[in-house]
Amino acid sequence: MKNFRVLITGATGFLGSNLAKTMIDRGFEVIAIKRKSSSLKQIAGIASKIHLYDLEDLDFSSVFQIHGRVDIVIHTATCYGRNNEPTLEIFNANTSFPLRLLDAASKAKVEKFINTDTILDKYLNLYSLSKNHLLEWGKFYSMHKMIEFINMRLEHFYGPGDDNSKFTSYVIDNCISNTASLNLTLGEQCRDFIYVDDVVSAYLTVLTKKDTSEQWFSEYDVGSGDSISIRKFVETVHQVTGSKTKLIFGAFPYREGEVMNSKADITALKALGWKCHVTLEQGLKLTIKGT
Question: What is the b/e burial string over 73-85, where b = at least 16 CB atoms within 10 angstroms of the residue's CB?
């Protein structure tokens, strides 16, 4: 296998750190762009093996010049807006920053830019809108053959060490802690849950795929290919953890514009030889063990 030199954004986060660890294990050279304020906790065991650069006042073109050749950029950094960040901060994190990096990568003749996208409707919130803006820029760059742009549309991924603000972690943590009660919606909406190791393997499959044609833009749904109701998910977590927490379904209304059924179409990924290996129950047990 080719020894890739990969630049990752969001390497100090949940998905990015898992990607970085796996790539280093496989002999890849990893470069990462982070914020000065970012905690290195997620990459504590591998930080010395990563070329780290602080985002603030960074000239992106200089990173590519220093390393001579970067094969692939993987963009995983994001701002969900869950902490009421200002609109401009969300835009800068999800559109402006990666666009500057995309432009610098194209000028440095990087082969591929792999973007981490969402399955959410672009008008659902500021997060999904700003992510869609970057996607449109990616399509423009690929259309004009400036760089190959690969868009990864992620479903609900989870695993040990994930952000507690995410729904999956929130439910798991409350059940493990035996919180007195947990207020929820009716839970009729269906979602596709996928364990983080399967997400990482999807990126590696796409990253190492052999190009048989000049395809400048491609898109892949990343999920298990199956969906279950939120209620079923919560009840499964409750059962696996042996929790005594009282589940109160219907305490909250659905949010405006709620998607009632979301499931990844993994046909394109399967065509590359990828498949999902970890079942929901297996993934939950691994998550709980690592919590």
Answer: bbbbbbbbbeeeb
The pTM score is: 0.95
pLDDT digits (tens, 9 = 90+) for 109-121: 999 999 999 998 8
Confidence of residue 57 (pLDDT cuts 50, 70, 90): confident
The mean per-residue pLDDT over the stretch 57-71 comes to 93
3-state secondary structure the chain: CCCCEEEEECCCCHHHHHHHHHHHHCCCEEEEEECCCCCCHHHCCCHHHEEEEECCCCCHHHHHHHHCCCCEEEECCCCCCCCCCCHHHHHHHHHHHHHHHHHHHHHCCCCEEEEEEECCCCCCCHHHHHHHHHHHHHHHHHHCCCCEEEEEEECEEECCCCCCCCHHHHHHHHHHCCCCEEEECCCCCEECEEEHHHHHHHHHHHHCCCCCCCCCEEEEEECCCCCEEHHHHHHHHHHHHCCCCEEEECCCCCCCCCCCECCCCCHHHHHCCCCCCCCHHHHHHHHHHHC
Catalytic residue among 127, 141, 203, 220: 127
127 tagged catalytic: yes
What's the number of CA atoms in the CB half-sphere (13 Å) around residue 23?
33
